[in-house]
Every structure is written in structure tokens, then in C-alpha cells.
Design brief:
8% strand; P-loop_NTPase; two-stranded parallel ribbon; single chain; 2 strands
């Protein structure tokens, strides 16, 4: 869903319109947003030979902004989401951060305590 909320925005659709088209989609247990510095993303994209339509039509800064809007939009609809700031993490650190969030989600589901999500 988040990628639809981003890509279709680049096509000129509004968030509510995209939601109407995609609201039937099954909700995942948890959605991750991996965030990196836009300049780092741009440098990595320049090294790739094949780019997706999103990568060709947008920019890393615009994409991060739209994903931030998607995060807020889905949060208002009670989606379980987690942002991972990858700027200081190696791949193993990213995985560890993701596993920690999954563990937290599992803990929250087993307990009636309120857990904050970010």
C-alpha cells in the first residue's frame, strides 16, 4: 500500500482517491519504511543500470517526502508501521532494527499494555 500511495501520487492522484482504489488490499502485520539520506540514495541509483518507474520519475527527496505522507495517512488508519533510520546502520544493523520492531509488535500483541510505534 505505501508504494501505491507514493507511485500513484506521482501520477497525479490524491491520497483519498488512491485509498479508495486500494483499500481492499490485505493489511500486513507490520510495514517498514527504510529511510536514508537523499544524496546517498541518489548516488546508489547512479550506480544501477536499471531503475524502476518510481526511481526514473521521482527524486529521492520527493520519494522520501511522499513516503512520509503515506506513513501519516496510514497511521491515521491504524496501520502497524515502523520507520528505520538507515543513515548510521550497516545492513546487519538494519536487520537488527527490523527484528527489534517485530519483537516489540509480538510483545504488544501478547500484552494488553499500550505500546508506542514509530
Amino acid at each position: 500500500m505505501p508504494s501505491s500511495l507514493v507511485l500513484q501520487r506521482l501520477d497525479g492522484l490524491t491520497l483519498p482517491e488512491i485509498w479508495r482504489y486500494n483499500s481492499f488490499a490485505l493489511r500486513p502485520s507490520l510495514t517498514f519504511y527504510l529511510e536514508e539520506d537523499p544524496a546517498v540514495i541518489a548516488a546508489r541509483l547512479k550506480q544501477r543500470q536499471v531503475l524502476s518507474r518510481l526511481e526514473r520519475t521521482g527524486s529521492p527527496g520527493r520519494e522520501l517526502s511522499l513516503y512520509g505522507q503515506a506513513f501519516r495517512f496510514l497511521g491515521l488508519r491504524h496501520w502497524q508501521q515502523a520507520r528505520i533510520d538507515c543513515r548510521t546502520l550497516d545492513p546487519g544493523g538494519v536487520v537488527q532494527a527490523m527484528l527489534s520492531r517485530i519483537d516489540l509488535l509480538n510483545l504488544c500483541e501478547r500484552n494488553t499494555l499500550s505500546c508506542s510505534r514509530s
